[in-house]
């Protein structure tokens, strides 16, 4: 993990590339990578099933538990679920561990990525939703994300995005 102490916490709307960027950033920083959605799936089963069987509130509680567990960590790259850092408790817990970077993409780019998503992840908040509903959710969240340091990802390679983040992080 080298001598780097701060965590790097990636936030941003669904399909902005948090996991893909996070994995490469972790390699570049010689850091361990964590993905909060993956932790939840390992513990509780698929996100789709959690939303269906227990509801969104239960999922958000699981996110808060993980944020609280990660409060004492350092030297990690953490990709968070799309809404996690908009929750004040999660933002407080994870924000205190290091730098928060928000990956940004236009709604057109997000739609394109959702259509070509290789993992074919089921995102319950988008399943069966119309373009207007996607736009509404996106617009509802813009203000929340805007308080974090933004890195734009439209028409940029994963490498270019990682490089910009590394520059922003400096010696952190
Ligand atoms: C969500 C984003 C998802 C996942 C869940 C809810 C959201 O993560 O946590 O489906 O509310 O934005 P990704 O941003 O990795 O898709």
Textual characterization of the structure:
With 172 residues, this protein is an alpha/beta fold. The protein has one domain (7-169): Rossmann fold, CATH 3.40.50.300. The chain contains eight helices and five strands, in the order E-H-E-H-H-H-E-H-E-H-H-E-H. The protein has helices at residues 18-29, 36-44, 47-54, 56-69, 88-95, 107-115, 131-145, 158-169; strands at residues 7-11, 32-35, 76-79, 98-104, 149-152. The protein has a five-stranded parallel sheet with strand order 2-3-1-4-5. It starts with 6 loop residues before the first strand and ends with a helix. The model has no long low-confidence stretch (mean pLDDT 94). The structure holds shikimate-3-phosphate. Shikimate-3-phosphate binds next to loops.
CATH topology: Rossmann fold
| Approximate helicity band | 40-55%
Poorly predicted sequence stretches spanning 5 or more consecutive residues: none
Please trace the helix and strand order, writing H or E for each element.
EHEHHHEHEHHEH
CATH architecture: 3-Layer(aba) Sandwich
Whole-number average pLDDT?
A: 94
Major β-sheet strand ordering: 2-3-1-4-5
* Count of alpha/pi helices: 8
Q: Calculate Rg over CA atoms.
A: 15 Å
Q: Please give the number of β-strands.
A: 5
Shape: globular
CA-CA gap between termini: 13 Å
Most strands sheet: 5 strands, parallel
Report the CATH C-level class. Answer: Alpha Beta
How many separate structural domains? 1
Q: Structural class, please? A: alpha/beta
CATH superfamily: P-loop containing nucleotide triphosphate hydrolases
Bound molecules: shikimate-3-phosphate
């Amino acid at each position: 993990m080298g001598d780097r102490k701060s965590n790097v916490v990636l936030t941003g709307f669904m399909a902005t590339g948090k996991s893909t960027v996070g994995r490469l950033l972790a390699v570049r920083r010689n850091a361990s990578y964590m993905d909060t959605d993956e932790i939840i799936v390992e513990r509780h089963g698929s996100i789709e099933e959690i939303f269906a069987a227990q509801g969104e509130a239960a999922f958000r509680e699981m996110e808060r538990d993980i944020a609280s567990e990660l409060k004492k960590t350092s030297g990690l790259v953490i990709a968070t679920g799309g809404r996690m850092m908009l929750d004040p408790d999660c933002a407080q817990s994870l924000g205190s561990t290091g730098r928060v970077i928000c990956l940004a993409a236009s709604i057109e780019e997000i739609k394109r990525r959702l259509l070509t998503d290789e993992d074919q992840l089921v995102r319950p908040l988008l399943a069966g939703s119309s373009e207007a509903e996607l736009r509404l959710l996106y617009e509802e969240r813009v203000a929340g994300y805007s308080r974090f340091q933004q890195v734009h990802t439209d028409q940029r390679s994963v490498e270019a995005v990682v490089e910009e983040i590394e520059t922003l992080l400096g010696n952190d």
